[in-house]
């Protein structure tokens, strides 16, 4: 299933980010539309990750566009293992519609935050794209991210979809 957030995120990336030569990591990728979009637009390497049972991608594009498919359940320990296996950090981390407090619970925020903290490079950016829903807990999740990474900015509102950009420092 393709969620609206991932389509909005693709359009925003198209207009605002040069993905050429970047290392991209998509978390909770589902069908992986934003990650694949970055790969087709010149990313150096793109990892699509999700729970192992959710990884059902056709392999036709993977070699040509250097797309790698790998299970990653959010959390500090899994992310350290993932980092060691990949051998590097990521310039661009994507999380599209991954903050679903009703479905995944509040504890999922901490696991997701820890994963970003382990895998985002010092100069990297995280894009969190969310469909706003009543009591979605997004503000609390963003507060946690801010405490972990330092800087967060709302960069787009498109109907009920918001994109927040997070970095380890504030750009002047
Ligand atoms: C609502 S779907 C969004 C899928 C996709 N990013 C999109 O926008 O279309 C949320 C995704 O997060 C993944 N997910 C949930 N909890 C997770 C966890 N603890 N670790 C890794 N992935 C998780 C789910 O398997 C699912 O694919």
* Mean pLDDT over the residues: 92
CATH-derived topology:
Rossmann fold
**What letter string, H or E per element, gives the SSE order?**
HEHEEHEHHEHEE
Helix content range: 25-40%
Number of discrete domains: 1
Number of strands: 7
* H/I helix tally: 6
**CATH homologous superfamily assignment:** Vaccinia Virus protein VP39
Give the end-to-end Cα distance, rounded to a whole number of Å. 39 Å
CATH class: Alpha Beta
Q: What molecules are bound to this protein?
A: S-adenosylmethionine
Tell me which CATH architecture applies here: 3-Layer(aba) Sandwich
Structural class: alpha/beta
Radius of gyration of CA atoms, rounded to a whole number: 15 Å
Q: Proportion of β residues?
A: 25-35%
Description:
α3 runs parallel beside α5. The protein has a seven-stranded mixed β-sheet with strand order 3-2-1-4-5-7-6, with helices on both faces. Helices cover 35% and strands 29% of the residues. The protein is of the alpha/beta class. The chain has helices spanning 4-16, 33-40, 76-86, 101-104, 107-119, 138-149; strands spanning 23-27, 45-50, 67-71, 90-96, 120-131, 151-158, 161-167. A hairpin with a 2-residue loop joins β6 (151-158) and β7. The longest helix has 13 residues, at 4-16. It has one domain (4-167): Vaccinia Virus protein VP39 (Rossmann fold, 3-Layer(aba) Sandwich), CATH 3.40.50. The protein contains six helices and seven strands, in the order αβαββαβααβαββ. The model has no long low-confidence stretch (mean pLDDT 92). Residues 2-3, 5-6, 28-31, 50-51, 54, 73-74, 96-98, 100, 104, 108, 111 line the site of S-adenosylmethionine (SAM).
């Amino acid at each position: 299933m393709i969620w609206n957030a991932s389509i909005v995120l693709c359009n925003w990336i198209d207009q605002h980010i040069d993905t050429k030569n970047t290392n991209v990591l998509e978390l909770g990728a589902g069908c992986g539309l934003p990650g694949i979009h970055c790969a087709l637009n010149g990313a150096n390497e793109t990892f699509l990750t999700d729970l192992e049972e959710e990884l059902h991608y056709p392999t036709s594009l993977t070699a040509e566009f250097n797309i790698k498919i790998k299970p990653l359940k959010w959390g500090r320990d899994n992310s350290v293992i993932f980092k060691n296996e990949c051998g590097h950090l990521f310039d661009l981390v994507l999380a599209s519609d991954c903050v679903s407090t009703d479905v995944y619970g509040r504890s999922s925020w901490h696991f997701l935050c820890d994963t970003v903290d382990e895998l985002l490079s010092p100069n990297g950016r995280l894009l969190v794209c969310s469909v706003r829903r009543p009591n979605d807990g997004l503000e609390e999740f963003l507060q946690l991210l801010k405490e972990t990474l330092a800087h967060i900015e709302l960069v787009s509102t498109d109907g009920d979809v918001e994109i927040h950009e997070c970095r380890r420092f504030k750009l002047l």
